[in-house]
């Protein structure tokens, strides 16, 4: 019987891959198994019962040829012996049927008992990976390749089930059956049968392992190319509008076709080596079967064995070698499942760049807090510093605006306040190309590095410049600010953000789907949804990062009033390019090349005749 080629599985990423770590090929399979074992051992009694049912099923399976031998021998009767003809075979036939049924029953009980352990372990690992990915730094997610990483996770969770299924349901039962059959052949006949079987098994397993290891490089190449093609396809589809803007459909199709052509050649090479492996396996099995049957036939001819013995040996060999015929596939799938699982464990081992201090406590607030940046220096890459010793304070319940040209570091302030990055210098022994900085940021006098990240982010609400929505309903996206708030709260927030009337005109109203990344809505509509989401959260600290940049002048003036209302009695940081949105701020900071070059109220800065005054004059004249 020729086993089918298994479906492609995950590939070990190179060490410099964003989702990578130690390549799977450099790690022991036993290390991966040891990582999986604790997840399964949570269901230890189910594991024990499953193993017991597995042994019982194999005992019943091995008993079938024994009864078949007795049945054939019983049919060799003396003429006129009606009792033997009616009673002995009938009892053996019933016992034969009972053993067949027992094998099936015990097998199904094993799978039923162990299903909860398998699914529970899969769920626990997948949930842990999902949570860990959310805990990783912004830098990791900016560098990741979404298509490849999601495929790694999908393969890893599937690998848990495949590994358990192939090992517990195929490999272990086959090994148990081999041991039982060899014991019976050695005790009932002679060691010749045992040696033929053992030599065939050793040759088969050795050939399978050697050839499979040799062709692993071809499968790895195939899987790498599959991930490349998947990543290109996902990236192109996620940037659908950009492809259309530049009329590059044909260009994207060519890039994808290049990946598919390389994948085609790699798959052909993988399939040809698989065919060679299958042919070699069948040669070993066929020779072993011929030798066993020849020896058994000689035994019958010499009178040392009965016809029942010949039938039993034949049945044993069929039962034994049919599952062995799939050993190559099983070995490859188990190896690949271990690789897939290890890829997911590598993600779990990815170090969290921003981690809570072991003694961190939740941020303690009694009202709108004061926020202070104290001599903050920061760089995403060591060679290029973004912020050069920034110091300012947002008094409790007041609004401070930061303006300046693009690339001056305005949005970096919001990322640091959210603790997407830390300003703490890295350990001198830790060499990387990651962010570095100095100084500190406090909220109500509490260093944000000394409190939990969750409590800091709970206290802050943001309306970002680039609003990304979930591919769900408008109501879901508004309620994301406070998921348990309910429909009425979503409506109130939408009214405050001046988007309620637009939603009401839609056929499905608040149940309207916004599409992938909110592409079904205009830029202004997405931004108003983001404003409603932040208004619903109602945090004590608010960040408006170009919050009205996608709105027309009429809507901007209307929402500006609502933003002022939302910011009342809250500590507010406004990052703006359009100066008309910050004229009422208590203090305006002019940031140029990572340094504060001017600060003061709108009137003070206009009268100063400096950078801010020039920007104001340009925008008033419509030149900006």
What does the model show?
- The chain has 624 residues and is α/β, with parallel strands linked by helices.
- It has three domains: 24-349, ABC transporter transmembrane region fold (Up-down Bundle); 360-459 and 539-624, Rossmann fold (3-Layer(aba) Sandwich); 467-533, no CATH class.
- The chain is 60% helix and 9% strand.
- The protein has 20 helices and ten strands.
- The CATH homologous superfamily of the largest domain is called ABC transporter type 1, transmembrane domain
At CATH's second level, what is the architecture of the largest domain?
Up-down Bundle
Enumerate how many helices there are, as a single number.
Answer: 20
Tell me which oligomeric state these chains represent: single chain
Largest sheet: 6 strands, mixed
CATH top level of the largest domain is: Mainly Alpha
Rounded Rg:
35 Å
Helix content: 55-70%
Identify low-pLDDT runs: 1-26, 425-434
The rough form would be described as: elongated
- CATH fold annotation of the largest domain: ABC transporter transmembrane region fold
Strand order, largest beta sheet: 6-7-8-3-9-10
Percent of residues in beta strands: 5-15%
Structural class: alpha/beta
Distance between the termini: 75 Å
Total of domains: 3
């Amino acid at each position: 019987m020729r086993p089918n080629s298994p479906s492609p599985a995950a590939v070990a990423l190179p060490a410099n891959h964003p989702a990578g770590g130690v390549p799977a090929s450099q790690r022991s399979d036993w290390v991966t198994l040891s990582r999986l074992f604790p997840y399964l051992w949570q269901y230890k009694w189910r594991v024990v019962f499953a193993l017991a049912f597995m042994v019982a099923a194999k005992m019943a399976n091995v008993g079938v040829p024994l009864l078949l031998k007795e049945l054939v021998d019983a049919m060799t009767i003396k003429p006129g012996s009606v009792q033997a003809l009616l009673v002995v075979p009938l009892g053996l036939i019933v016992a034969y049927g009972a053993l067949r049924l027992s094998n099936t029953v015990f097998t199904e009980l094993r799978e039923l008992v162990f299903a909860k352990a398998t699914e529970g372990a899969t769920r626990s690992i997948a949930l842990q990976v999902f949570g860990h990915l959310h805990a990783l730094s912004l830098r990791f997610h900016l560098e990741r390749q979404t298509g490849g990483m999601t495929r790694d996770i999908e393969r890893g969770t599937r690998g848990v089930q495949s590994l358990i299924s192939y090992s517990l349901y195929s490999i272990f039962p086959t090994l148990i059956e081999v041991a039982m059959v060899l014991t019976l052949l050695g005790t009932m006949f002679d060691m010749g049968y045992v040696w033929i079987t053992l030599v065939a098994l050793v040759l088969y397993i050795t050939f399978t392992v050697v050839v499979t290891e040799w062709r692993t490089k071809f499968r790895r190449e195939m899987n790498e190319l599959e991930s490349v093609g998947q990543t290109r396809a996902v990236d192109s589809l996620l940037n659908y509008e950009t492809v259309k803007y530049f009329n590059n459909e044909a260009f994207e199709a060519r890039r994808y076709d290049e990946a598919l052509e390389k994948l085609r050649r790699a798959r052909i090479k993988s399939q040809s080596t698989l065919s060679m492996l299958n042919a070699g396996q069948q040669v070993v099995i066929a020779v072993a079967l011929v030798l066993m049957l020849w020896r058994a036939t000689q035994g019958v001819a010499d009178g040392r064995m009965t016809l029942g013995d010949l039938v039993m040996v034949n049945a044993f060999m069929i039962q034994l070698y049919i599952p062995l015929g799939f050993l190559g596939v099983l070995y490859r799938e188990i190896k690949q499942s271990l690789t897939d699982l290890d890829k997911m464990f590598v993600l779990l081992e990815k170090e969290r760049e921003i981690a809570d201090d072991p003694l961190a406590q939740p941020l303690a607030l009694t009202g709108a807090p004061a926020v202070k940046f104290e001599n903050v220096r920061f760089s995403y890459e060591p060679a290029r510093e973004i912020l050069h010793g920034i110091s300012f304070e947002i008094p409790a319940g007041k609004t401070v605006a930061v303006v300046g040209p693009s690339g001056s570091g305005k949005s970096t302030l919001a990322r640091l306040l959210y603790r997407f990055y830390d300003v703490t210098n890295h350990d001198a022994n830790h060499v990387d190309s990651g962010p570095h900085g100095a100084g500190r940021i406090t909220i109500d006098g509490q260093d944000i590095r000394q409190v939990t990240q969750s409590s800091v982010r709970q206290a802050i609400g943001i309306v970002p410049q680039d609003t990304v929505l979930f591919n769900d309903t408008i109501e879901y996206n508004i309620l994301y600010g406070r998921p348990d708030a309910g429909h009425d709260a979503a409506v109130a927030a939408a009214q405050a953000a001046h988007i309620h009337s637009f939603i009401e005109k839609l056929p499905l109203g608040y149940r309207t789907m916004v599409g992938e990344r909110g592409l079904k809505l205009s830029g202004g509509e997405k931004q108003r949804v983001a404003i409603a989401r932040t208004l619903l959260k109602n945090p004590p600290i608010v960040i408006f990062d170009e919050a009205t940049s996608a709105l027309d002048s009429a809507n901007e003036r209307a929402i500006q009033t609502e933003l002022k209302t939302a910011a009342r009695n809250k500590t507010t940081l406004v990052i703006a390019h359009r100066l008309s949105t910050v004229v009422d701020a208590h203090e305006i900071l002019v940031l140029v090349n990572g340094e504060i070059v001017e600060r003061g109220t709108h009137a003070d800065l206009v009268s100063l005749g400096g950078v801010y005054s020039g920007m104001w004059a340009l925008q008033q004249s419509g030149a900006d």
